[in-house]
Amino acid sequence: MAKIQNDLNGWLIIDKPYEMGSTNVVSKLKWLLHPKKIGHAGTLDPLATGVLPIALGKATKTIPFVMDGKKTYRFTVKWGVQTSTDDVEGEIIASSDKRPTLSEIKAILPQFMGDIMQTPPAYSALKIDGVRAYELARQGEMPEMKARPVHVDDLRIVPVDLECGSLDNGVSQEDTKQNETMFEVDCGKGTYVRSLGREMGQKLGCLGHITMLRRIKCGPFCEKDTILLANFEKNDYNTNALSVIPVDTALSDISVLAVNEVQAKRLINGQTISCKEFERADLEGFTHETVIGLKFEKHIIALAKIERSGIKPFRIL
Predict the structure, then answer these.
(1) Among this protein's residues, is 45 annotated catalytic?
(2) Nearest CA among 19, 173, 149 for reference residue 99
(3) What does the angle CA 181 – CA 187 – CA 192 come to, to the nearest 5 degrees?
(4) Which terminal Cβ of the chain has fewer Cβ within 10 Å, N or C?
(5) Which domains does the chain have, with CATH numbers?
(6) Which of 45, 86, 87, 225 is labelled catalytic?
(7) pLDDT tens for residues 125-145?
C-alpha cells in the first residue's frame, strides 16, 4: 500500500546537527512527514552546523532564489596546520611554527573581500570531467582545482570572551600570537569557507584550517527561524505543520506586482498578461531580466518576466 503524502507547502529551517549530512536531514524529514516534494537549499558539510532551509511541496520551486541569496557563516581557523580537506577531518599535510598577531590578521582581511578569485577545496562536490572532486581525492587522485570568481561582502573578526581564551590582563592583543581566530563572513553563492581559512593561512605564512563552521544566515532565513531536528522528531504532526514558513518568504528580495482576481486566474493557467493592463508607474524600473513576483491578496502566486507579448509567468506557485 502506498504511503499517504501530506500536502505541506513552505519552508522548514532546520538547525543542521554536527556530523550529519544535508541529504540525511532531507531523508529523515521525508520519512517523518511524507511530503509530496522535498529538497534543501544550500548544502552544508557534515562537520558544519546551522541554517539549513528545507523546502516542502510548492516551496521546492523557489529553491534557486534561496541558493542565490547571500549567506553568513561563523567559523574558526586554527593556525599552523594545513589539512587535506581544509578542516579537522583531513590528514595534516603541512605545518608551521609561525602564529599571526591580531594586527597581521586584520591587515590581510581586505584582500579577501569584494570580487576575489578562490580555489575550491579538493574535497568538494564540484565535478572534474564529470566526477565529483571528493571522489577523486578519496581515490588518491588529487584533482587540480582551478581558481574561480566569488564575491565576499564582508569578512570580520569575532571578538571572543574570556571563556574562549581572549586576554584581559593588560597584555595588548596586537602583540599576542594567535593560535585560533573566529570570523564571520557575508558572501555570495559558491564561496567556500574552508578555502578562506586555507588561503588566509597561506597569505599569513602560517597555514591554517577550519575547526568550526556554522551558517547563521541563508537568503532570508536566519538562526531565529531554526528548529532542532531532535525536537522536531518529538512533536506531533500539527505542531510540525505550524513550524512551516510560507512559500513566498524565499522571495522577499524580488520585485512584486499586485494583480486582481481575474488576472490571477489567467496567470495560474500560464497565460500572459498585457503590460497595458497596468499603470506605467507600476512597471517602472522593470527590465526583461527582472524576476517579478505576481501577488494576489497576501501571497505571490507566480514568477514572471516582461517579454514582448507582455508579462509572462515562468513558474506557478
Answers:
(1) yes
(2) 173
(3) 70
(4) N
(5) 10-69+220-247 (3.30.2350.10), 71-218 (3.30.2350.10), 254-316 (2.30.130.10)
(6) 45
(7) 767 667 676 676 676 667 777
